[in-house]
Write a sequence for this structure.
């Protein structure tokens, strides 16, 4: 007699717990959709990694209840993923070419807007042990060079810079994005590489930059755009606006990016 | 035992068809997107030829190293017992379950310029990352366990009595190994080597992490596919077809040999 | 030139403890049932199994002595083995099989093959030189295995059940062949078998092994005439008993008593009675036979015109009668019969 009463009491308790759990999930779900889908999914060029992470935190503070998720990779990789149908809200590319690919595929809502400029630099180990002075030195035999793949923006910009310097593009290991180039030089596996000036920020104690003269250097223009079919269209709009706003621009400038 | 042919139950057939589709459809998709008219043109471009040459050289070298190092290792693991043997066996199998990229990072930590051993090799100009030798090392790391695994099974179950007979006729252990053991395990050796070669050919993560993506030196077909995917997808698909054709050929020739129990 | 060996090998619950000495020019046979340890002994003499204790000396040179830490590896002993199932190398031709040992001993390939061919031709297998072991008949494979062993000119030749793998027809010829080749081999010859026929046909001396110990040695005839083990007795087809003799009685270990000719022997004895010397009667007999017992028939085993009948008397005996007699007497399992044995038919010898 007592046992069966225990069983029914336990069953009742269990069903109450289950109902409470569902109510909790339901309210979160509703709140999430009510807040305009609080997650903003941003695909951004690898060179924007640290700057955008900071912007993301500022954005979340300015828009309570929202969350920004990033996917950093080479712009060419991201362009392909968007064209193949990856669900995302915002695309920030390191060159116009890859943005054009996405626009041509009909995946951009509205018009892309340039939001920063960047410049190239030669990255070497701290102390510049191989005494690299300029682009021409990279062709020296015996040096191990790391460049981004030709389809990645910084890889293509590097080829332009070499052409401007009238020196051949050296044989190099090709990386999938600029962060990998930084990694190679930082670990000491490569003697030098071509990256953006923003990648050689102070605080990295293993690397330093060798500047490229203006006449050889390349101006990289970064466009940003909201994507069609964005799961969080309003969040996308807000994020793009934030990046272009004085607050966002201040952050970008602090990381070494040049104004658009 | 007389093999019985059972009638195929409908439900099982449907589920099995789904499973088969998982394997067949991606291959069909690859064939469908392939640039058939351009194929010869694309595959004979210098970058593609380079990638195929690097792949061939590295995978064959990695297989050779795996055989030379792996046979004695398999023999010792199969025939002797010593404290720590099971630990050694687990370690030789580790690359099979380890994510290849992790393997590449591990190799860098040892053979990288600032690595455990690399720091002593560097002053002598011996450098492994970004070299073809480095690519061979990365491929050997991931592929050798397959060879060791298949040889260990066969060496363990080999009829020792033939080896006893050889010894009774005056053969020392090396002669027994060379003239009796190895010829007797030759079919399994070929199968193990083929499996090892196929794995080495398809290796990506450890190679790109440790040896880098150096066209002409370390850029194998998988790496070329990865890089070309962004800029020239038709080249990527064409190269993928090459690997697909090679892998299928290996499988057909081996006809599941390494799946059979000795 | 001789083999002197004291072999003690322990395996789980089995212990092999054998001492033997065989001279060159002598063929000795280790005869014993399966599980008696004969193959273990052979492997130990070849050096394939280490001795736990003992000593093995060949031609005065110590091959193995665990107490002194001496253990010459198999490949360095002047010993060759003809294995049960031949163990020919399947991936080599017959010629290369025979040449194998020669090449291991340093002969260049051409010379080794020439010598090997000579051996094969001596065995009448010159035309099978190129054949793979799989293509040879049992008898041919056995001869190749023998040639392979003899080619390395060992001091000790060990043969493990040399006729076992051959079918009955081939066996007689192989036996003749083997006898001829063994006769011309100058070293020590030791064969191991469970078939007494094999032992008698090939050996000068038989060493009977049972459960790891030597129970009897002697010439084949002596061993079967006076078996000291049940197993040999069974094979020789005689009834064998053990007991204590006193006067004209022998008190048997298994129960029962035999009446024997007075003063035939005293003390511990073996007693053998040939099955044909045992008479079976339906009624209790009158007259002189003094060993008269009654018991049920346990088993009747008919082999052509002869029937062997196991009777559950005390002691139990096996009698041999004609099948006609079986019918005439209406013998069947379970039926009680009278058994009589003349005292003079019982052979006693010291146990």
């Amino acid at each position: 007699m007592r046992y069966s009463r225990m069983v029914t009491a336990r069953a009742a308790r269990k069903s109450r717990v289950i109902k409470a759990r569902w109510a909790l999930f339901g309210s979160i779900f509703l709140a999430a959709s009510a807040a305009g889908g609080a997650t903003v999914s941003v695909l951004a060029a690898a060179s924007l990694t640290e700057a955008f992470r900071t912007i993301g935190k500022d954005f979340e503070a300015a828009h309570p209840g929202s969350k920004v998720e990033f996917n950093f990779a080479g712009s060419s990789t991201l362009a392909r993923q968007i064209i193949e149908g990856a669900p995302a809200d915002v695309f920030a590319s390191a060159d116009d070419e890859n943005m054009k690919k996405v626009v041509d595929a009909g995946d951009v809502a509205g018009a892309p807007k340039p939001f920063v400029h960047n410049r190239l630099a030669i990255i070497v180990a701290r102390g510049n042990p191989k005494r690299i002075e300029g682009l021409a030195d990279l062709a020296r035999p015996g040096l191990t060079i790391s460049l981004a793949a030709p389809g990645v923006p910084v890889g293509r910009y590097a080829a332009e810079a070499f052409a401007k310097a009238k020196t051949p593009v050296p044989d190099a290991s090709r990386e999938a994005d600029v962060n990998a180039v930084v990694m190679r030089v930082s670990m000491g596996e490569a003697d030098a590489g071509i990256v953006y000036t923003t990648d050689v920020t102070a605080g990295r104690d293993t690397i330093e930059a060798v500047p490229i003269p203006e006449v050889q250097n390349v101006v990289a223009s970064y466009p940003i755009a909201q994507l069609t079919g964005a799961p969080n269209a309003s969040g996308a709009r807000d994020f793009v606006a934030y990046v272009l706003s004085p607050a966002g621009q201040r952050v970008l400038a602090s990381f070494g990016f040049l104004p658009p | 035992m007389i093999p019985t042919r059972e009638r195929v139950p409908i439900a099982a057939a449907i589920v099995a068809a789904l499973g088969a589709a998982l394997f067949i459809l991606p291959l069909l998709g690859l064939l469908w997107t392939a640039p058939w008219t351009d194929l010869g043109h694309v595959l004979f471009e210098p970058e593609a030829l380079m990638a195929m040459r690097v792949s061939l050289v590295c995978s064959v070298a990695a297989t050779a190293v795996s055989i030379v190092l792996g046979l004695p290792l398999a023999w010792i693991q199969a025939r002797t017992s010593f404290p720590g043997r099971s630990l050694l066996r687990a370690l030789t199998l580790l690359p099979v379950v380890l994510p290849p990229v992790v393997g590449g990072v591990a190799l860098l930590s040892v053979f990288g310029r600032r690595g455990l051993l690399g720091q002593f090799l560097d002053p002598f100009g011996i450098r492994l990352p970004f070299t073809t030798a480095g690519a061979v090392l990365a491929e050997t790391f991931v592929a050798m366990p397959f060879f060791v695994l298949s040889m260990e099974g066969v060496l363990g179950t080999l009829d020792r009595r033939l080896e006893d007979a050889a010894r009774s006729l005056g053969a020392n252990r090396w002669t027994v190994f060379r003239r009796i053991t190895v010829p007797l395990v030759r079919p399994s050796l070929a199968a193990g080597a083929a499996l090892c070669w196929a794995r080495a050919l398809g290796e990506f993560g450890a190679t790109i992490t440790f040896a880098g993506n150096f066209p002409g030196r370390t850029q194998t077909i998988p790496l070329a596919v990865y890089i070309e995917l962004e800029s020239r997808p038709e080249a990527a698909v064409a190269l993928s077809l090459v690997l697909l054709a090679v892998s299928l050929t290996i499988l057909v020739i081996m006809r599941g040999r390494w799946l059979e129990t000795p | 030139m001789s083999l002197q060996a004291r072999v003690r090998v322990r395996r789980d619950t089995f212990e092999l403890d054998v001492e033997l000495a065989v001279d060159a020019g002598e063929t000795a046979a280790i005869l014993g049932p399966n599980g008696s340890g004969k193959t273990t002994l052979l492997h130990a003499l070849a050096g394939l199994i280490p001795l736990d204790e003992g000593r093995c000396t060949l031609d005065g040179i110590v091959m193995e002595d665990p107490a002194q830490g001496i253990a010459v590896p198999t490949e360095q002993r002047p010993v060759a083995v003809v294995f049960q199932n031949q163990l020919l190398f399947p991936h080599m031709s017959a010629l290369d099989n025979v040449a194998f040992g020669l090449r291991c001993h340093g002969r260049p390939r051409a010379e080794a093959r020439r010598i090997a061919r000579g051996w094969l031709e001596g065995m009448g297998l010159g035309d099978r030189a190129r054949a793979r072991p799989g293509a040879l008949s049992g008898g041919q494979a056995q001869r190749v295995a023998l040639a392979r062993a003899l080619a390395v000119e060992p001091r000790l030749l060990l043969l493990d059940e040399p006729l076992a793998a051959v079918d009955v027809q081939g066996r007689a010829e192989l036996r003749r062949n083997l006898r001829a080749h063994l006769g011309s081999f100058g070293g020590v010859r030791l064969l191991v078998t469970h078939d007494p026929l094999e032992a008698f046909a090939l050996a000068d001396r038989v060493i009977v092994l049972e459960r790891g110990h030597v129970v009897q040695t002697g010439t084949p005839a002596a061993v079967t005439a006076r078996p000291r083990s049940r197993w040999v007795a069974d094979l020789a087809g005689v009834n064998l008993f053990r007991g204590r003799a006193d006067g004209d009685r022998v008190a048997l270990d298994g129960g029962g008593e035999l009446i024997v000719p007075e003063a035939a022997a005293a003390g511990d004895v073996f007693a053998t009675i040939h099955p044909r010397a045992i008479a079976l009667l339906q009624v209790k007999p009158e007259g002189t036979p003094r060993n008269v017992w009654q018991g049920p028939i346990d088993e009747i085993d008919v082999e052509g015109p002869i029937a062997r009948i196991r009777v559950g008397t005390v002691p139990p005996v096996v009698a041999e009668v004609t099948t006609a007699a079986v019918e005439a007497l209406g013998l069947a399992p379970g039926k009680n019969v009278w058994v009589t044995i003349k005292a003079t038919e019982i052979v006693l010898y010291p146990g």
